[in-house]
């Protein structure tokens, strides 16, 4: 629907099917299967079932596609689907014999899991408010989709030394962390011309690193050449011997800026005559066919909800609605109900955010009551301040095979304790609290105002869960300065620690969260 699946995918699925059948028949191990499954976004969970990660370029998905994912989760997976911090969806608890049937059904509606994992091009991000924000430089969604179409059609995109991530931000507010990824494009204008500032060789992990400015400005129609040249450089010179040193940022560090740029310019020269990908403008407007009747929800609760979760778009009469979900988890039935409502508002109505929520767009004011009546039934967070819904947590050891701690349990406990407190969360600054279950930063604790990373410490011969504390990520002189480690605390102290910090912000209106820029629609 929003990106074009390459013709080669059918053959690749059939090849993958061969290996899955061997695994089901006991002829290969799960470790041997992972070599084939990871590039397809398929990973084994701790319970020996599998997760399927689904590409959603720029976080876009149509109501029909969303409903299909929920139906497949209902048929083949668990009770809910999951929104990732890369604007994708995941189906969990899939039995191995159902992997291929699910992937084939996804393909029928224009969705692919190819590149959801492994040493491959991952989902390309774009600002969730792109195309509707009054503060954006320009809409970067078409660029993210066009680059997706081009790169996923190239064979070497699946055979890289390590994962390769790209993001497009529609302004300097950078609500997709383009300053901290392998290739980040930030929309700018120079002398009236549209273009991009380009960051390179950033990334998250045990050795997280901010991106480096490669170009202060490139014309709008050169984004493909930049991304392709960096990909080719990575393909040729990336470390294929040591997985722990294989990301693009390690290549930048080993070569040094001067040599990296020299090799990059060589690749640019080789591809300057390549065909540039076409990109279509995505129109944000009211769907002219709305068969549903408007619902009037005049109440104090409705007014509070609007203040918290509804914003005007730059398109007159249209509104953005933030739909928050705890842990980014959505029950299948709730997703189906939401998709059926959204079908009346056209295909361009939903985007996923890196906060693991859904942003609805192009909703006419007269239908906000319809949206409210459904949302308050499908997600309890819709009746609460935005604080918990904006927290980012990874799955932790409950699902992830390399996870250490269980950050979801901490967020649950935090939510319960805040409900019983008198802390006025609606009056707090926009604070980012991120909790990772291990040092790998899947929940982006290095990019938080207040971040936590799980680890194990030995006390009197007993192994216990602890968390490293990170504070105050901020942007200085166009460079992202990551949150610094400031403390370490036992797991059972984390919730009270967060509440003390949040309370301190309320009292002082300074400190945590005050230095970070924020994107507003």
Overall helicity: 25-40%
Point out poorly predicted stretches: 509-521
Number of helices, where a helix is a run of at least 4 consecutive DSSP H or I residues: 14
- Radius of gyration, whole Å: 22 Å
* C-alpha geometry: globular
Mean pLDDT: 93
- Spatial strand arrangement across the major sheet: 1-2-4-3-12
Taken together, the total number of domains comes to: 4
Q: What is the CATH domain class of the largest domain?
A: Alpha Beta
How much of the sequence lies in strands comes to 15-25%
CATH level-two architecture of the largest domain: 2-Layer Sandwich
Structure overview:
This protein is an alpha+beta fold and 521 residues long. The chain folds into four domains: 100 residues, Sulfite Reductase Hemoprotein, domain 2 (Alpha-Beta Complex), CATH 3.90.480; 147 residues, Sulfite Reductase Hemoprotein, domain 1, CATH 3.30.413.10; 84 residues, Sulfite Reductase Hemoprotein, domain 2 (Alpha-Beta Complex); 120 residues, Sulfite Reductase Hemoprotein, domain 1, CATH 3.30.413.10. It contains 14 helices and 21 strands. The strands form five sheets. A five-stranded antiparallel β-sheet has the order 1-2-4-3-12. The protein has a five-stranded mixed β-sheet with strand order 5-6-7-8-9, covered by helices on one side. β19 and β20 form a beta hairpin. α1 runs antiparallel to α4 and α10 packs antiparallel against α11. The chain is globular. The C terminus is likely disordered.
């Amino acid at each position: 629907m929003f990106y074009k699946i390459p013709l080669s995918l059918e053959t690749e699925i059939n090849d993958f099917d061969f290996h899955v059948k061997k695994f089901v028949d006991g002829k290969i191990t799960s470790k041997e299967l992972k070599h084939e499954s990871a590039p397809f976004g398929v990973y084994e969970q701790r319970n020996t079932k599998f997760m399927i990660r689904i590409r959603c370029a720029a976080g876009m998905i149509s109501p029909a596609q969303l409903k299909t994912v929920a139906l497949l989760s209902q048929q083949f997976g668990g009770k809910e689907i999951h929104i990732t911090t890369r604007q994708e969806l995941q189906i969990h608890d899939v039995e191995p014999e159902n992997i291929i049937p699910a992937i084939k059904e996804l393909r029928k509606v224009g969705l692919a899991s190819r590149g959801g994992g492994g040493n491959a091009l991952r989902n390309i991000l774009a600002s969730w408010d792109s195309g509707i924000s009054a503060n954006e430089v320009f809409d970067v969604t078409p660029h993210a989709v066009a680059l997706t179409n081009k790169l996923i059609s190239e064979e070497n995109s699946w055979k890289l030394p390590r994962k390769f991530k790209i993001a497009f931000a529609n302004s300097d507010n950078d609500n997709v962390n383009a300053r901290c990824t392998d290739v980040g494009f930030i929309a700018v204008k120079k002398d009236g011309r549209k273009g991009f500032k380009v960051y390179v060789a950033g990334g998250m992990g045990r050795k997280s690193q901010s991106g480096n400015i490669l170009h202060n400005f490139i014309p709008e129609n050169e984004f493909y050449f930049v991304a392709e040249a960096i990909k080719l450089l990575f393909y040729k010179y990336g470390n294929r011997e040591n997985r722990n040193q294989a990301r693009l940022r390690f290549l930048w560090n080993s070569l040094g800026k001067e040599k990296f740029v020299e090799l990059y310019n060589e690749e640019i020269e080789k591809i300057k005559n390549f065909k540039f990908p076409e990109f279509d403008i995505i129109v944000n407007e009211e769907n002219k066919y709305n068969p549903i009747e408007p619902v009037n929800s005049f109440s104090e609760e409705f007014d509070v909800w609007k203040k918290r979760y509804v914003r005007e778009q730059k398109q007159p009469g249209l509104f953005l609605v933030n739909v928050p979900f705890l842990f980014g988890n959505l029950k299948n039935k709730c997703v189906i109900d939401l998709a059926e409502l959204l079908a009346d508002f056209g295909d361009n109505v939903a985007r996923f955010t890196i906060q693991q929520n859904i942003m609805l767009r192009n909703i006419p004011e007269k239908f906000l009551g319809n949206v409210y009546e459904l949302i308050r039934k499908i997600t309890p967070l819709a009746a609460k301040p935005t604080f918990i819904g904006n927290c980012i947590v990874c799955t932790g050891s409950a699902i992830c095979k390399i996870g250490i701690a269980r950050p979801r349990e901490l967020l649950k406990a935090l939510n319960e304790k805040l409900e019983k407190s008198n802390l006025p969360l609606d009056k707090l600054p926009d604070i980012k609290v991120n909790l990772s279950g291990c040092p790998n930063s899947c929940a982006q604790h290095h990019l938080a105002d207040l971040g936590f990373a799980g680890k194990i410490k030995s006390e009197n011969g007993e192994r216990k869960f602890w968390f490293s504390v990170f504070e105050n990520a901020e942007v200085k002189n166009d460079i992202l300065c990551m949150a610094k480690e400031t403390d370490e605390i036992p797991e059972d102290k984390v919730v009270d620690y967060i509440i003390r910090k949040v309370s301190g912000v309320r009292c002082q209106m300074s400190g945590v969260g005050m230095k970070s820029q924020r994107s507003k629609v």
